[in-house]
């Protein structure tokens, strides 16, 4: 699955983006849908970008909630390079971190990326690949100790950047990361236009979107959802 968005025509203001950008998102069974689809929606509008989903073997990949099937026609092993690697989380991270061949691929791809990124527990995959050792990074709030077991220093920030490695916190924070990444790949105005077009203007009805703000009862209930 890939989506190509036409680059601006020659009369449009020049920008710093590359003429083409290959963005790769690996999907394994039990992936968290918003981890992948939220950033995909944003990054597919980056001028010149091609977003490609990859997996172990071509076929249907099921999300962690059990109702979404995505047909992925490309093996990750067939991809030799990309400009952006974006690793989503969900239950799929457990498969990824225990797959030596996949971790080797992540390391090889990372060597040539402009940005290597993660959403939610996707950061544990980067950690297992040895890409976060000694770095401050973020992940889902309930996986902070797992992240630190890979040598990273956990912070509850929504998006953390170290040069070309960018991690984002749980689920919805991947959209924040994708907007920031769009700006890094293009310019602020282009990223702002994408944010406006997608009407990304969060106004949640409750102020319990982070573990630091949520009361104990809500934290306890939230832990039963994962």
Topology diagram in text:
Blueprint (H helix, E strand, L loop, with lengths): L1 E3 L16 E6 L6 H11 L5 E6 L4 E4 L6 E4 L11 E4 L4 H6 L2 H11 L4 E5 L2 H7 L7 E2 L6 H5 L4 E2 L4 E4 L2 E4 L4 H13 L2 H10 L18 H8 L3
Parallel strand pairs: 2-3, 2-6, 6-7, 7-11, 8-9
Antiparallel strand pairs: 1-3, 4-5, 10-11
Helix pairs in contact: 1-6, 6-7
Structure characteristics:
single chain; 226 residues; alpha/beta; Rossmann fold; seven-stranded mixed beta sheet; two-stranded antiparallel sheet; 8 helices; globular
Could you walk me through the main structural features you see in this protein, from its secondary elements to its overall organization?
With 226 residues, the protein is α/β, with parallel strands linked by helices. The chain has one domain (2-223): Class I glutamine amidotransferase (GATase) domain (Rossmann fold), CATH 3.40.50. It has 8 helices and 11 strands. Helix 6 packs antiparallel against helix 7 (188-197). It is globular.
